[in-house]
Design a protein that fits this description.
Distance between the termini: 36 Å
Strand order of the largest sheet: 3-2-1-4-5
Radius of gyration: 15 Å
Number of helices: 7
Number of strands: 5
Helix content: 40-55%
Oligomer: single chain
CATH superfamily: HUPs
Low-confidence stretches: none
Shape: globular
Number of domains: 1
Order of helices and strands: HEHEHHEHEHEH
CATH architecture: 3-Layer(aba) Sandwich
Mean pLDDT: 94
Structural class: alpha/beta
Strand content: 15-25%
Length: about 150
């Protein structure tokens, strides 16, 4: 389900009252590829509910450059929402999901293998609330940037 940020706090409170383990990850997810599928499927296995914080179009432009995103935020959210292991997708406009993580206070914060757990944005919030940070191994050779470069050549 694509959920507005304004509705997310109430939804997370409801899930926690039912003792559901919330897993959170975030990203641009501009062109979905097998590396994303592996990563999100593994993330879902860590808990009951998988919430994705999706960078808005303006956030992606600031992070990745003026030619990105390839797909707009509505399309990216719809694609993510259609995956069977994704429960909720919410769009955020900041450069990092720190405030979103503070709102959700997930039990598990997940990032890909190109990150170091202690450097993950929001790790402090999750750990302070008894949660954990999990790094899922990066799938070599699978990246949106690589796909874009291949298309251009």
């Amino acid at each position: 389900m694509i959920i507005a940020r304004t509705d997310l706090k109430e939804k997370c409170s409801e899930l926690k009252s039912k003792a559901k383990k919330i897993v959170f990850t975030n990203g641009c997810f501009d062109i979905i590829h097998s590396g994303h599928i592996y990563y999100l499927n593994e993330a879902k296995k860590l808990g009951d509910v998988l919430i994705i914080g999706l960078n808005s179009d303006s956030s992606v432009k600031r992070l990745k450059g003026s030619e990105r995103p390839i797909n707009n935020e509505s399309d990216r959210a719809l694609i993510l929402d259609s995956l069977k292991f994704v429960d909720y997708v919410t769009i955020f406009d900041e450069d990092t999901p720190y405030n979103l993580i503070d709102l959700i206070k997930p039990d598990i914060l997940v990032k890909g293998g190109d990150y170091i757990a202690d450097e993950v944005v929001g790790a402090d919030i999750v750990r302070e609330n008894g949660g954990q940070v999990v790094i899922i191994p990066y799938v070599q050779g699978k990246s949106t940037t690589g796909i874009i470069e291949k298309i251009k050549s």
